[in-house]
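Reopening this ticket.

The earlier resolution said the output was attached, but the attachment link was broken on my side. Pasting everything inline this time so it's all in one place.
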Amino acid sequence: MKIPVKQELRQQVLDRIKEQKEEIALSKSRIIFAKVIALPVFQSARTILFYASFRGEVDTFALMREAMVLNKRVALPLIRKEEQRIVPMLIKTLSELKPGHHGILTPEDVPQDRVDAAELDLVVVPGVAFDRHNNRLGRGAGYYDRFLSGLPAATPTIGLAYDLQVVDAIAGIEAHDRPVTYLVTN
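Inline output:
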């Protein structure tokens, strides 16, 4: 079987996500939520960088709310498009988020809310597809690969994916592509 090139695979998986019924996605997200909060790396983490899920992605908002209930520090990425980088920003409530790049809910750029990557105990990483070796295929801009490259090596990362996002292998993995430490799926 031919392994699709990155762009073909990205489109195939995005189409699968789009075709998935909302109630099925919510059910799968609840299963993933339960698995994540049971992970020792989640339980022991004090500061967690999440991403704001959108367009049918695994729901991260329930995870953020749970982290807040557990008195964890919750951060979200602020995309600095001109610098092509991610800046982690602490948030206190989900209501402070505003639509940003591509309509993704984003924190405000408040200097005292910036978090150094070394302070992160856990990073929840988005991906369009993941393979059985925890390699990830993002949306193609490379923001997360660059960000993950700058993380301390010991910082665990978690990819969240529906079963339909997991493939046997992602062709064309390059040196800058960063796998996740854990892949959590339904």
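Reporter confirms the inline version is readable. The chain has a mean pLDDT of 92. The chain has one domain: 6-185.
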